[in-house]
Design a protein that fits this description.
By secondary structure, the chain is α/β, with parallel strands linked by helices. It has 13 helices and 15 strands. Helices cover 32% and strands 20% of the residues.
Length: 492
């Protein structure tokens, strides 16, 4: 069964405590951890926002949010009543005079329990909030601050945010959250590689021909999402954070220990080893595209609400990334993410090199029995598991080969319900475990890689390909496999 270890008593102040993130994720996550015994009755949860609420109104809002996010069989009115007693609220505006900050500070006890400030606010407010906390004398050695992504929209803005927050808090007090690192199967990349001797000796350029990392989505620009998305795009929205996190765990060297900085040191080395493309390389190593209407769904990306009619913002991006270090030199990391695709799935595919000679099929094998590379597929979502493919002899006369596969599914483990990614990461922040959080230099190195691609697109006036809504993506992305076996995975 999944084991939930209690965390030491804490105090958390949620800035933006009445906002969407607080209602959908944070308050329900805290309540569910309370139900599972990880949070004690000694803890305090304080919402802080501009909304004109008193404590009773905030508790009522939290009740609706938590009840919506909890199944009827798990809802416990008695436990909710206890949890509600932990809640408090302070109306505040970060530009207010000292009175509101003084009132907020009076609700926090800095002498006994650690204090966590969760900034569920736009990133442009991170530094101002931290400065206001400092002026209000609400910063202490046991304080921590949790920052939501995105940390900026390019390298310059990320540096500005990091500098502003680091002027108040030490780096080891800052927890930059990316919920992908809370997924069980993403974390299992570390266990799979470093706890199994059959994999790690093969996990290098001598044996691996290519690595594919795909985050594919079926959702398009429904509702009013296009107005935001058109200012971001797939490169900023997904590659800079989610895909980069998976890539670092696949490519990193073994850390000296599982201590937070030992793990994050190795991740940073990977990001810094990524080749920053020249303008010419951007044209040959990347593809950007937008989805177009199809017979069944006629609305394309540019038809969505809030999207400019001449927009060049990409709803799909594919990259042939290169990690220029000793382990991976020459091995392409093929990254792909997009909206309005045929299927929703996230996976990593390692394609191993084929033997130098095909002994059984001769120098010119037929397509029916041609030797194909072994693959190791790591399924992250919606299916969670591992698939290993290989060649076997088909029963009968002669040496006719066929494809076979071994598989493992996490659903087969009787572990009970493990906490969702957000709950896992929130609990780690409350417990002071920074292993699954991003460090400032990692964020900035990822932005440097992404900025080089964006600059190349602009300088070369790179074309924007199209792909039908509900398809596997643009045909141009297949060209990124040049020199390698295989093509993009079609998912589970």
């Amino acid at each position: 069964m999944a084991e939930f270890l209690p965390v030491e008593p804490f105090q958390i102040v949620i800035f933006g405590g009445t906002g969407d993130l607080s209602r959908r994720k944070l308050l329900p996550a805290l309540f569910h951890r309370f139900l599972d015994g990880q949070i004690s009755e000694a803890c305090r949860i304080i919402g802080a926002a501009r909304s004109e609420l008193d404590q009773a109104a905030f508790v009522e809002m939290a009740l609706k949010a938590c009840k919506t996010a909890t199944s009827s069989e798990n809802w416990d009115p008695k436990k909710w009543k206890i949890f509600a007693s932990l809640l408090d609220y302070q109306q505040i505006d970060i530009s207010d005079a000292k009175k509101a900050w003084k009132e907020l500070g009076a609700k926090v006890d800095f002498s006994e329990m650690p204090v966590i400030y969760y900034l569920a606010m736009p990133p442009s407010l991170y530094a101002p909030i931290c400065q206001a906390l400092k002026k209000a004398d609400m910063v202490c050695p046991s304080c921590r601050v949790v920052l939501e992504k995105p940390i900026g929209r390019d390298l310059a803005s990320a540096q500005e945010i990091n500098d502003g927050v680091c002027a108040v808090f030490q780096e080891d007090q800052i927890y930059r959250i990316d919920h992908y690192l809370g997924k069980e199967t993403v974390q299992n990349l570390i266990a799979l590689r470093f706890q199994n001797a059959i994999f790690e000796p093969l996990w290098n350029r001598k044996h691996v021909e290519s690595v594919e990392i795909s985050v594919c989505e079926t959702v398009a620009m429904e509702g009013r999402r296009g107005a935001y998305y058109d200012t971001a795009g797939a490169l900023r929205d997904m590659v800079q954070n989610h895909l980069m996190q998976v890539l670092t765990l696949v490519a990193m060297e073994p850390p000296a220990s599982m201590h937070a900085d030992d793990v994050r040191n190795e991740k940073v080395k990977v990001v810094r080893s990524l080749r920053q493309f020249s303008t010419d390389e951007v044209l040959t190593h990347t593809v950007r595209a937008q989805y177009a209407g199809s017979d069944t769904s006629p609305e394309g990306y540019r038809d969505a609400y809030g999207v400019a009619p001449d927009s060049t913002t990409e709803s799909y991006v594919a990259i042939r990334a290169l990690v220029d270090n000793w382990r991976w030199s020459g091995v392409p990391f093929l990254l792909r993410t997009g909206k309005a695709l045929h299927q929703r799935f996230t996976e990593v595919v390692l394609r191993f090199r084929t033997p130098p000679i095909d002994l059984l099929n001769g120098p010119t094998p037929t397509d029916a029995c041609a030797l194909r590379p072994n693959t190791l597929r790591l399924l992250i979502q919606p299916d969670e598991g591992v698939r290993l493919s290989f060649q076997v002899k088909q029963p009968g006369q002669g040496m006719v080969m066929r494809h076979a596969e071994l598989g493992f599914d996490y659903s087969e483990l009787e572990t009970g319900d493990s906490p969702p990614a957000y709950q896992r990461l929130l609990t780690d922040a409350l417990d002071g475990n920074a292993t699954l959080f991003l460090r400032g230099d990692e964020v900035e190195a990822a932005w440097a890689f992404v900025d080089a691609i964006r600059a190349g697109w602009h300088a070369a006036e790179a074309p924007v390909a199209t792909y039908p809504r509900g398809s596997t993506g643009p045909e141009e992305a297949d060209d990124l496999f040049h020199g390698c076996e295989g093509t993009w995975s079609y998912g589970p």
